[in-house]
UniProtKB/TrEMBL annotation, chains A, B:
<keyword id="KW-0805">Transcription regulation</keyword>
<feature type="compositionally biased region" description="Pro residues">
    <location>
        <begin position="342"/>
        <end position="353"/>
    </location>
</feature>
<feature type="compositionally biased region" description="Low complexity">
    <location>
        <begin position="354"/>
        <end position="365"/>
    </location>
</feature>
<feature type="region of interest" description="Disordered">
    <location>
        <begin position="338"/>
        <end position="365"/>
    </location>
</feature>
<dbReference type="GO" id="GO:0003700">
    <property type="term" value="F:DNA-binding transcription factor activity"/>
</dbReference>
<protein>
    <submittedName>
        <fullName>LacI family transcriptional regulator</fullName>
    </submittedName>
</protein>
<dbReference type="InterPro" id="IPR028082">
    <property type="entry name" value="Peripla_BP_I"/>
</dbReference>
<dbReference type="InterPro" id="IPR010982">
    <property type="entry name" value="Lambda_DNA-bd_dom_sf"/>
</dbReference>
<keyword id="KW-0804">Transcription</keyword>
<dbReference type="GO" id="GO:0000976">
    <property type="term" value="F:transcription cis-regulatory region binding"/>
</dbReference>
<keyword id="KW-0238">DNA-binding</keyword>
<dbReference type="InterPro" id="IPR000843">
    <property type="entry name" value="HTH_LacI"/>
</dbReference>
<dbReference type="Pfam" id="PF00356">
    <property type="entry name" value="LacI"/>
</dbReference>
<dbReference type="InterPro" id="IPR046335">
    <property type="entry name" value="LacI/GalR-like_sensor"/>
</dbReference>
<dbReference type="Pfam" id="PF13377">
    <property type="entry name" value="Peripla_BP_3"/>
</dbReference>
<feature type="domain" description="HTH lacI-type">
    <location>
        <begin position="14"/>
        <end position="69"/>
    </location>
</feature>
Length: 365, 365
C-alpha cells in the first residue's frame, strides 16, 4: 500500500473503496481499472475511469497520463544466484533507462505466502509498478499488490497467473521440441530430459515439447529418462549421474538450463565419457558463457534481455494507461547448434539371426 | 542535484552556498561535511554541522540522523555483462534489504566525462547515496555528486579516488602474489600474466604481486609474458593465443578474471594443449561457475558478495553521520586450488656438457 508520509506531498486521495462506492462496483473492479486489466466491462471501465479522473487519482488506468510518477519501478527476482537473472535485469534496466525510470532490484527472500520483504515492497518507497520474475504468487500477494495500486507484469511466472495480469516468457514448448528434434535427427533414440522444478510452467512446456518430438518420431517416451531438478549445476550433475547408471543409459541429454548442462558435462567427464562423442548435451538459455565451454554448448536460446525489455515496456505502457493488447507474450526461442551434440556412439547392430522386427534395437555401450 | 519538484514536499532548503557563506567556508567544505568526509578541521566541521542542523538540512553528515530518507540508494555499475556484477549486486541488495533500503540499479552508459544517464542519476529520483562500481570518475562527476549532497562509496575504483571518498576492494596485490607463488611452487618458470585494462588499479596491483613473486623466486620478469586485456572471455582467448605463439611460450598463465581463464582454456584446446598437463591456468574472482569448468579452475577468490555488503554498510553508516574509520577497505583474497594447475610438462634437461650455470635452463616444448 502506498504510504502517505510527509514526503509524498500529494493531495490526499479518496480510497479505492470510496470510488468503488460512487461507481457502484467492487473495490476489486476499481483496482482492475486502475491496473489496466482487460476483464472489465467497457461501460464499467468508463464509469470508473471518469471517477478516477474526477478525483485526479494518479493510478495508471485513469485514461490520463500520470503526471506524478515516482520514476521508479521494482524488479523482484526469485534469486540472484544465476547469470540468468542478470540477463533479465540488463533488459529491464536498458528499457527503463531510455524512459528515465529507475529500477529497484530486490529478492523474494522467502517462499512463504507473504514474506515481509515482499509485503513491504511497494510501501518501502514510492514505486509505480512491479516486475516479478519467476515467482510463485499467491492470491494474497496479488491482492496486496492490487490494493497498492501499482502496475504488475510477470516474467516467466511459476504458476498460471490470473488471466488479466500481463506476463512475458519464451516459447518453451517450441524450444523443447527443437532441442529434441535436433537430437533425434542426429540419430539418438535414447534421449533424456532434465527439467527444472516439475511444477514450473516453463518446465512443463519444455518437457511437453520433448515428448511431442519423440512421439512424432515414433519413439516411445521412457519415464526413466524424464527427470527434474532445479536449474542449478548440482542438479544437472546429480540427474546425469543417475541417468548414466541406468541399465540402458541415454546417449543424449536435453538439460533444463545451461547450468544444468555444465553439471552434465562434469558427470560425463567423471564417468569417463566424452561430450559429444559418447554423450550429447543440449542446454537451455544461451548464457554468454556457452560458447566458452569445452566443448561449446549447443543450447536453446531464450532472448532473456529482450524478455526483460518487453516486460519493462509493457509495464511502462500500462502505467500510461495503455494495457497490452494480449496479456501473455512469448518471445521466440532459437536452437544454437555448437559442439556438444553429435551422432550417438555406433550401436552394436542386432544379431542378423534375430528376426524380431524391433524398432528399438538394443544398444550396448 | 536534488530536484525540488512538487513531489518532494520538503521545506525549501538553503543552498550549500548560503550555508558556506554563513560558516565562512567554501561550498566544497560544506559538501565535505555533508558527505561525512574526514578531511575537515574539527572546529570547521562543528560550525558547519551546527548550521546544517539549524537549517534542518537533511544531509548525511549533519550529526543528526536523517529522518527523511528516501529509503533508496543507487548502485551504479560500469556494465552488466559479467557474472561479476551480479555478485556485487547480491551483497548490496542483501545488506540494504536488512536495513529496509531499496537498491536502484543502473549503468554508466558512456565512458565520457558526464554521460546524461549518470548526470541525471541523483536527480531522476530521490536517493540517499550512490555506490559506484569499477568506474572511472572524473573531477566533474565528483563535483556533481558532491553538489547533489548524496553519500558516495566506491567499489574497485578504476583510478585513484580522492583520499576522502570511501572505497571497498580486495587485496589484489596479495592475490597476484599468491597465484604466482602457487605456479612457481609447482615448478613453473615461464609464467605469463594477462591483466585487465592496464590503467586499472586492481590490474596494476595484481601484476605487481605477480612481479614480486617472480622476483622473490629469482626469476626475471619477461615483458613478453605480461599482457593486458579487458576481463572478458575474448581477451583471455586472444592473449593466450599470442602467448602460445611465442618462440618460448609460457607453461602457466595467471589470468585477470575467471572469464579470461575460460578464454585461455579455449585457446589451449585449439592449440592442442591440455589443461593442466600442458598449460596451467589460474583465474581471478572465483565465480560460482569455476568449479563446474572442465577442469575445475584454480582461481583467486575475491569475496565479491561481501565487498558489496561492506560497500552498502559503509554507505548506510555514512548516511547516519558515521564516516568510516578508514576510507579504504580491502577484503582478503584467497587462492582456491582446483584442477587447472599442475607441474609444467617435463623440460628437456640441458645437455650435461653445457657448463654455463644458467639459472634459466632452456625449456623445449
Amino acid at each position: 500500500m502506498r504510504t502517505s508520509d510527509g514526503d509524498s506531498g500529494r493531495p490526499s486521495r479518496p480510497t479505492l473503496a470510496l470510488i468503488a462506492a460512487e461507481a457502484g462496483v467492487s473495490t476489486a473492479t476499481v483496482s482492475k481499472v486502475l491496473n489496466g486489466r482487460t476483464d472489465v466491462a467497457p461501460a464499467t471501465r468508463e464509469r470508473v475511469e471518469a471517477l478516477l479522473r474526477t478525483h485526479n487519482y494518479p493510478g495508471p488506468g485513469g485514461g490520463t497520463r500520470r503526471t506524478r510518477r515516482s520514476g521508479l519501478i521494482d524488479l523482484v527476482l526469485a534469486g540472484l544466484d544465476s547469470p540468468w537473472a542478470v540477463e533479465i535485469l540488463r533488459g529491464v534496466e536498458a528499457e527503463c533507462a531510455e524512459h528515465g525510470t529507475g529500477v529497484v532490484v530486490s529478492l523474494v527472500r522467502d517462499d512463504d505466502a507473504c514474506p515481509p520483504s515482499w509485503q513491504n515492497l511497494p510501501a518501502l518507497h514510492h514505486s509505480d509498478g512491479v516486475i516479478l520474475v519467476t515467482s510463485r504468487m499467491t492470491a494474497r500477494q496479488r491482492d496486496q499488490l492490487e490494493r497498492a495500486g501499482v502496475g504488475l507484469v510477470l516474467v516467466d511466472p511459476v504458476n498460471l497467473p490470473a488471466a488479466d495480469i500481463p506476463s512475458v516468457g519464451a516459447t518453451n514448448w517450441a524450444g523443447g521440441l527443437a532441442a529434441t528434434e535436433h537430437l533425434i535427427e542426429l540419430g539418438h533414440r535414447r534421449v533424456a530430459v532434465i527439467g527444472g522444478p516439475a511444477d514450473m510452467l516453463c518446465t512443463q512446456a519444455r518437457v511437453d515439447g520433448y515428448r511431442t518430438a519423440l512421439e512424432q518420431a515414433g519413439i516411445e517416451v521412457d519415464r526413466e529418462l524424464v527427470r527434474y531438478g532445479d536449474f542449478h549445476h548440482e542438479s544437472g550433475f546429480a540427474r546425469t549421474r543417475e541417468l548414466l547408471e541406468l541399465p540402458d543409459p541415454p546417449t543424449a541429454i536435453f538439460a533444463g538450463s545451461d547450468q544444468q548442462a555444465m553439471g552434465a558435462y562434469q558427470a560425463a567427464r567423471l564417468a569417463g565419457l566424452r561430450v559429444p562423442d559418447d554423450l550429447s548435451v543440449v542446454g537451455f538459455d544461451d548464457l554468454p558463457t556457452c560458447e566458452w565451454l569445452s566443448p561449446p554448448l549447443t543450447t536453446v536460446r531464450q532472448p532473456l534481455e529482450e524478455m526483460g525489455r518487453v516486460a519493462a515496456r509493457t509495464l511502462l505502457q500500462l502505467l500510461d494507461g495503455r494495457p497490452p493488447l494480449t496479456p501473455r507474450v512469448e518471445l521466440a526461442t532459437d536452437l544454437r547448434v555448437r559442439a556438444s551434440t553429435a551422432p550417438p556412439p555406433a550401436a552394436v547392430p542386432p544379431p542378423a539371426a534375430a528376426p524380431s522386427a524391433a524398432s528399438h534395437p538394443p544398444e550396448d555401450r
